[in-house]
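Model: Ready when you are.
Researcher: Fold this.
Model:
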Amino acid sequence: MTRLVFPAMVLASAIALSVPAPLVAAPPSLTTWLFAEGSTNGAFGFEEEILIGNPNAVPVVVTFELFTQDGQALAPITRTVPARARFTESVRQLAGDRAGIALKLTSALPIVAERTMYWGGGLFRPEVKGYRGRVSDMRGGHSEHGTDEGARTWYFAEGEGKFFNTFISVANPGDTPANVVVSYRDDTGTEVKQAEVVPPHARRTFWPTAVLSRRLQSGRAGFATIVTSDVDVVAERQMYWGDGAPSGIRGGHAAMGVSTPALTWLFAEGIQGSLTPGGDPSFDTFVLLFNPSTGPIDVTVEFFGQAGVKLAQVVRTVEAGARGGVWAKELPALANQAFSIRATATVPFVAERAVYWRGLSEGTATAGATEPSRQWGFAEGLQGGFLRYQDDDDDDKRRFNTFFPIYNPGTTAATVTVHFYTEHGDTGVSKTITVPGQSRETIWTLLYDELANRRFATFISSTEPIVVERVVYWGKGNKAGHASLGIPLPDSLTLTAATKLPPAPQVTVREVEPSKGATTGGTEVEIEGTGLGNTELGTQVLFGGVPALRLEVEHDRELKAIAPPHALGRVDITLITRGTTVVLPGAFTYVAPGASGDDDDDEEAGSPAAGTKVEIEPRWGPAAGGTIVNVEVENVLGTVIEPGSQVFFGTAAARVVKVERNEIRVVAPAGAAGKVEVTVVTRGQVVARGVFEYF
């Protein structure tokens, strides 16, 4: 018999959520979703979102109930999710700044629901260009879908009490107090317990690191967890790590517990080493095994690649009440490979899996499925850049990449149809791929231009039972990420394509800044407009016919390009994106190195009053009105904006929201498409003029 011993600093690895089933994956009810974990604690930079996917042909009303750590009762809140759509809700908007929040979602029709959490250095920004507050650097994040019901027992195969900071969140959605006992089992089977009463409609957090850290030795600090209760509860586990842990946070992941051990665990995702030529990022995959039975068990772990190839197989013996596992790095055939995993035994056990960035800068945790399913659902998915997650002062715009690993454990090829639903209601795109038997294939949404710079829910159907996960990366070099198992759906749930394709964005360019740069190249040029596509595919910027040295689409309304070297003079800028070519005649002027490249005349947008410089942010908005606009005035003559000042868009007065010494915030009125003069009036005098464009 063997016992796996991990090196220090990499022992803790792998996590899971599982919905156990008999011969076919038993789908949840899809009308109730429970989450034990959640936080909007600004001290740690926590932001939380609830994502909902509606596969129905009609809108669905969803009720949110929130159970707080501090015991404060919050009134239920309802939201309407459009037909065949994805919906995003900020928990901060529902509950404010709170250390612990559990949730219950209910609906009359089937939906799928997930939770994401991000952290680091600030909070999400209002989606307003020019916002100057601190924005989260999103150094880490995790995701998980809810469970449809509570249970009296929950199992976790992963946990670590030295390098990682582990928490167990327990939510009681019922009307009766729950007497909860949490049992921690180290790698030798030694048990330590904690007990607490969780009030009705409340959440409590257990901190195993605090009670175990002195008992455990580095390199042998792992433990499994069993949560028991006298009434149904919901339990999740979170693990965080980084400089100064347990208080510091760099990376992290979360997982729902497993309510029933099983004979088989299936994972669609796994990666060892790197799949990129530069070798960055590089990953380590772990499979953690917990044996809750009274005798030792042998677990067979198999790894499958593409085209029906079994890459590796290993057997681990796990002692009674103890943990074992597999580190993919120990198997040479898995080096620099992506794979799916199957773990089996003759006695029920619990398995979890995690993928870590080499060096433990970040990690993802995901669930295992006990059986495949012909249909799967995901509420979360996003591709490209979004202003909500970006900081104007940070070069890393945290652009997202979404992947769907698919594992076909059978011997017959599966035809897989994927329906993507965007946030616009009954709008999306459908794709079809083939997955050979005993194989893994991956869908990368970057390849679908219809999804560029969009958020979406995903519903998948297959001719054969399969297992599907979703992995989301973001940031330069895919610096962070999260992963989740899909939600198995019943065959009786009809999945259909959205009736409308995502509206083809009208590609326009509204501003190029700066409009001058040195002939040696290297000037960073911001191009603002609409309808921009993916950075990697289908988008190009040319200066006088010469491609930009570097290009990044930050979101659908802004890109940055590095001007190439060119001879003196004015040149056209050509933008090619989404199959459309836009030529801006003479939009950029090359000047001698060291010559003035200032572009103040262009920046001021309009003809300001004498002695005044005005900045309007944003400088465009929908013709329907409603855009929050900041007008900032620098007046060398001493005139200032003061209470009672007015702002006009053409002849229409804007509603004033806030006035400061040199800045006034207003709500743009409705207007016709095109440019309109903006005037600021103080004491009956025009003190500033600018330009705003309606689209």
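Researcher: Now this one.
Model:
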Amino acid sequence: MLSKNDRNEEKVLKLQSFARPPLPGGTYVLKTKLFTDAGKDGLKGMPSKFEAKEIKFQITAPRFGISTELIHSVYPLPGSTGDYQNTLPHIVLKRKTFCWERVIDGNKTNFDKPWVCLLVFTEEEVKLEQIKEMTTETFLKEDADVKVPILTLNEDEKIAKTKLKALELDMNLFKRVAPKLDEINFLAHNRQVNTNNKGNNDTNGDKGWYTTVVANRLPIKGITNYAFLVSIEGCTTYMEEPMIANDSRKLRLCLLHQWQFIDMDEKLEDVVKNLNNNVKPLTIELKEGANPTEHIKRCLDFGYAPINHIRRNDEKSVSWYRGPFVPLNAEHHAIKTYKNADQALRFDANTNMFDISYASAWQLGRLLALQDSSFSIALSNWKNAYKRDRPIKIAKDLLLKQNVNQELLSSFINDAESDEVLTDYLIELWNKNTK
């Protein structure tokens, strides 16, 4: 049970407008100059000014792509259908400083402006064919019809020729949908939540801090909407330009992440009624011409699937497996407990195959439980307490018997080198006196 302080702490949500990293990504130059007053002290031949030295170094930060592991969640869910007309799409990232790790326009004073934004378009405005994969070198090649971000590649980026996804938009469409330079500050922020007692704590050491990027446009109803997380580094010129009539130019943007969803005004009643539409049973479809036995047909109808199985002795075989969702009403048997996964194996004599369904569930449940740090600690404490208290309980039970030498027992308890030795001795005594 949570204490009162823990319950209050769970309700706290901290918001922060931005999180500036110690140094944004980019190329830096460290210059040193040394002057002396050697001439004043009469040290002949000692120069009063030394040659200036400089060192260039690079701070790397994501620029042309991000790992999917950096993404915590997106909303609306990818591929989902629902009533989203009053919700701005957004993406949550796991790194606190992500949106401010690059400078949007090369001006070192714009540290508080995010270098990414989330753009929302309909399938009528943007086609997925407009997304192309190319190298950084090709990405930055400008021509009369396609404008590109104003960027300078460092030496490592020139050599690497990194591949990226590029999204080409009509210039006027970008200007109409993209936020203005003075608006982007309001479209990204940090939030800190309480991650205590979470079994799957996927934070990256920022103590519950996440970055949220919000779109500036609501979805359009009754049609597929695309959400694009794009880099706007080097695009400030185009963001501030006024729209030009009949502008045929396109703007090429670096695409970091994308997903799609449909905004539909669905009622719960309609959702429930449509649950069974186009739904097939969770069974394997046999190949044409297959002639299975009645027993195999029955297994497949029950939701079983034959899968490749590598046993612990490296022997390869095929076993039956069925997940927790079945295409029929399952019988509820008495709950059994198992000490290991092998005890949950079942053998099908008709096919000479093992059924590993319950064994897999046992192993999966064990791994998920041990992944939870609070459960692992509680289990370890329970084992230690049992190990400590069991010899004492056995000793008390033995002392109640008349034929046990209490002095000998007490002496052995005091001289025991370990709990294991003591436990073994007490169990031996117990067995002798209970026969």
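Researcher: Key takeaway?
Model: Residues 294-356 form one domain.
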